Amino acid sequence: MCVICTAIPASLSLGAVAEAKQNEARREALANGEIPPQRRPYWAVSLGAMLVVVTAATLYHAQGGG
């Protein structure tokens, strides 16, 4: 598997980890009676990165690379 294609699941897994950590921090804040931190769109950033990587991989492989 080429390096570009390997980055596709990596970008999604990093986004999933960031989203899980954010949800954990919000749950802990709510359990302690504090104001939860503002939600950040990690899922959207991860999806955008994945789309860029898929496009790059498609262009690379269409040109005869790999």
Question: Biggest sheet, in brief?
Answer: none
- Number of separate helices: 2
Write down the secondary-structure element order.
HH
Average pLDDT works out at 92
Distance between the termini: 9 Å
Task: Report on the architecture of this protein.
Helix content is 76%, strand content 0%. The protein has helices at 3-31, 42-62. The protein has one domain (3-62). α1 (3-31) runs antiparallel to α2 (42-62). The chain is mainly alpha-helical and 66 residues long. It is rod-shaped and about 55 Å long.
Short key terms for the protein model shown above:
single chain, 66 residues, mainly alpha
Brief characterization of the structure:
This protein is mostly helical.
What's the layout of helices and strands?
Elements lengths: L2 H29 L10 H21 L4
